Structures are given as C-alpha cells and as structure tokens.
Amino acid sequence: MLLAIDAGNTNVVFAVYDGEKWRGVWRVMMHVSRTSDEYGVWLVALLKTQGITVDDIDCAVIGTVVPAALYHLRVLCRQWFAVEPLLASVKQEWGFAINVDNPDEVGVDRLLNGLAGHQLYGGPLTVIDFGTATTFDVVDREGNYCGGVIAPGINLSVEALHQAAARLPRIGVGRPRGESVIGRDTVSAMRSGVFWGYVGLIEGIVERIKQEVGPMKVLATGGLSTLFSEGTKIFDHVDLMLTLNGLRLLAERNPLPILNAERDFLTEG
Fold it and tell me: Catalytic residues, which ones?
C-alpha cells in the first residue's frame, strides 16, 4: 500500500492507497517542530481503525511546500514503515513541461494538482486550490503547466481584517445567511464582504484567464472549495482528493527509492 503525505502550510494530510481506492485520509495541524515519533504514534493508531498495519505500507510519497517539515516526515517513513519516500520535486518525471521562467519556484502542490487535474479531467483547465493561499494554475490541452495566479487565502484575509481594524471582530468563514449581499450589522457585513468578495475574485480571475487562453474547464480543490461552490457556477468539478491523487500518479510515474538499511535514520541522508 502507498502512504501519501501532503504537507501544506496549515495541515499535514496522510492517506493510504491500496492500489484500487483510498483506504483512509487523516490530517493534523502543521507544526515544523513535530517529531517523527509524534506523527508515528498518531498515524499508526489511525491506520488500525481501517485494519491497516505498519507492514501493509510498502511505499511512500511526500509532497510539501514546507521544507522545514521534510526531515521529520522522511524519518517517519524510514523508522516507522521501513520505506524510503519518493519526494515530489521538479526533478521528478512529471510527464509534462513546466513552462515558466523559474520551474524551481513552483510549489509542488501546484504541479500535483495540474498532474491529477489533466489526468482525471483532461485539458485545458484551471485548477483553483483554496489553501493558505488561493492559487490558480493553468494547464494546456497537452497537460503542460503554464503558470498561474497566487492570491491571499481567505483565512489570511479574515485575520488581517481583524488585526488591522480595532473594532472589527474575528469571524469564521461561511456563506452569509439570506440572499441579500447587504449586511445589517458588522458581522453580517464582514461575512458578506469576505464571501462575496472572494466569489468576485474567483470569477474575475478565471474570466481574465479565459480571455488570455480560451475556453477551459475549471476545477476546485482545497477545504473551502465546497463552500465557494455554493456561491458560483464557475466550477466544472470540485475534487477534494486532487492533490493526493497527484501524489499517487507521481509515484506511479517514477521509480520508488530503495531504503538503505545502513543509513543512519537520525540523519537526513
């Protein structure tokens, strides 16, 4: 079975694929000082709830945009599961060209979304990922990565609004009640501005992308994608498993590394 690890700025997502389906998906808050043993105790206990043992895991793949978290995740794979993980990077074989000025600057999560999006839905397409940042990634008909747009994530914007304006409270992200965009109190006005403001951002950027490159599918992923699908009809598909499927597909395309039994597990190596 494949252990896929998607380590983002906010959460680390662990998932197990048995060759036919995902057997479980679990997430924990990202903290760069969390040790491999902390991850291991937590993860092994959750695997047991699905009838999966440590010995069932025979390969692993890691995708992360947080370099400081990589060490402990690699040690987790080596010590707890006795596998050497494949690391998602621009150096791997993606099966498509990365047509940007500096490929090394592209977050692997964006490449993973492009890989899975094209493989599962075809191109051309734009993938919108609602994470710590809201990213728009463009893939052409042949699957080549063409660049994209990065905007502040909605939770960052909400927190900045609270921090910068002394009299504005901290609010949760959600769709405003009722159909009116006009709020009748401070909280409802803030909710309306945040929700409908992001709907406007999404629709506006997608429209400008389509003006540049022509008609295309629009995919949404990330935890808040289902929320925003309630406010716009611009999404052709919402796929919460897109990044994980990108990790799975990358592992299928590349030879998996072999664990060096003589490696010092306490070094990054």
Answer: 109
